[in-house]
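Thread: Acyl-[acyl-carrier-protein] desaturase, structure

OP (GT): Posting the sequence first so everyone is looking at the same thing. Length is 411 residues per the record. Can we get the structure tokens written out before standup tomorrow? I want them in the notebook alongside the other entries.
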Amino acid sequence: MAVRLASHMNMMMSSTSSTSVVSQSRKRLAFGVDILPPFSITKSTLASPNKLLVSSTLRFQYTMETENLTKSLGSPCPHPRKQSVDEIFKSMESWATDNILPMLKPAKECWQPQDFLPDPCSDGFHDQLRQLQARSKEVPDDCLVVLVGNMITEEALPSYHARLNATDIFHDHTGVDTTPWAVWTRGWSAEENRHGDLLNKYLYLSGRLDMKQVETTIQYLIAAGVDIGTSNNPYLLTIYTSFQERATAISHRNTAKLAMQCGDMKLAQICGIIASDEKRHESAYSKIAEKLFEMDPNGMLVAFAYMMRRKIGMPAHLMYDGKDENLFKHFSEVASRIGVYTAGEYRGVLEHLVGRWNVEKLGGLSSEGREAQDYICKLPNKIAKLEEMRARTPKIKTAPTTVSFSWIFDK
Ligand SMILES: [Fe+2]
Ligand SMILES: [Fe+2]
């Protein structure tokens, strides 16, 4: 049975009584989605990294429309003067030690994947496994697809660690640097490592996945890398990570709600506990960014505007399973349709950060800073208007699109 893109909502409605998540996702469905980067990366792109092929999908049309709201980027983000950035971060070191590092949890106080999994050393292992498999049978295919996509995203952690490490300031020259920034990078990675580990083991034990296809996708993704547009600029990195950690928390939290609706409370607990880690990480990154806004408001505004013009791309956008050239697009469409992550959520994260960093009230700015401030403050409304316009646009009725995923045996 194929995963039917157009019929999913009906399936969700019939498999659950009445839920706010379902009604919200129905509403959001009309908006279309834009969590994709402006280019779709295809198999041939991976073979020839210099060649970017543009996808001719509705999603791309939407992206082109949003592009009209923005200026052409043309040039890279004006990099703040390295010397002044070094000085700013140096002056923040004792503050970061006192305020950011305590936001990492000591390993002995952290949850570990085994806390949520059947214990293979216990007599009850086989019973626990049977119960796990019975519960996961109730999870609809498209919810499973989103769980797998989320898990694969988490499993590409080596790429994200490499991005942090490639950034001025957060880098770790010796591998055991003692700056609070390097300590944070290693501690953050160590916490994140549990996310993919837990989801991978749980989904493996569910017995519902073609694990070789899942593992192949992870290998392709790590080999392909990640293009988040932050280069070595720590301002861009703090903005990207603040946005992305919040977006990831939303995605896991919404998946937890769906798992709860299906009656898999353990899976809901797993997604929920991962979401709470992501929220804590978001708090840390947005706190660093808040401090940078205090110290260099112009530099941070320009960096924020740059990232929003470029758009915050999801970290796993280069995913490929050896079969589907548009795998990330298809995964994202399912995630949007079932209300896990939508265009409305993207705008919501932006609005949150604008408020969190008091962007509207920043004063004493340079002309560049004011221009960036103006762009950022107007952007949420522009995105909302675009969503409304799309919702009002009559849709051509077409037959339901069927997309299959190798992760679930081409269903
Ligand atoms: Fe994570
Ligand atoms: Fe995260």
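GT: Both are above now. Quick notes for whoever picks this up: Residues 1-74 have pLDDT under 50 and may be disordered. Residues 265-295 form the longest helix (31 residues).
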